[in-house]
Write a structure and sequence with these properties.
Order of helices and strands: HHHH
Helix content: 25-40%
Bound molecules: heme C
CATH topology of one domain: Cytochrome Bc1 Complex, Chain D, domain 2
CATH superfamily of one domain: Cytochrome c-like domain
CATH architecture of one domain: Orthogonal Bundle
Radius of gyration: 18 Å
Structural class: mainly alpha
Amino acid sequence: MLKELAIIALTTGACAALPSGGYQDPEGPPSIRHGQSLVMTHCSSCHAIGLAEQSPHRGAPPFRTLSDRYPVRDLEEALAEGIVTAHPDMPEFTFSAEDTADIIAYLESLPFGEGGPQR
Ligand code: HEC
């Protein structure tokens, strides 16, 4: 009896403690999944958006390395107001506040820096 109780406690405890790693949606917006599909559509022709691939455009930083340079949340303003970089290769984008939040959520879901498979 005691043993069964311990097992129940263990399994429920383990579920609650599971980190939401990878590409799962948290409840409600912002939607990581939607952010992923946005960057897939708009950014992946140049940027590596995933965990290990190289950027198709040599000069474009893989998204998983962005937080080496600044907190990805800092991009929120840039994305909402039209991100422009010094690089003429990159087109200007303007996203709605909602899409921006989704993109940030996706970027934050990437295992940056330590823990990332490769940079
Ligand atoms: C046509 C190619 C291309 C596309 C499409 C593109 N980028 Fe870029 N991006 C670049 C290049 C090239 C750089 C490097 C610019 C530099 O170093 O000056 C860059 C740099 C960046 C940076 C780093 C800026 C910095 O100063 O650190 C961010 C953030 C970024 N892109 C976000 C995005 C997002 C978000 C999208 C999709 C909405 C996107 N890019 C789409 C080519 C692209």
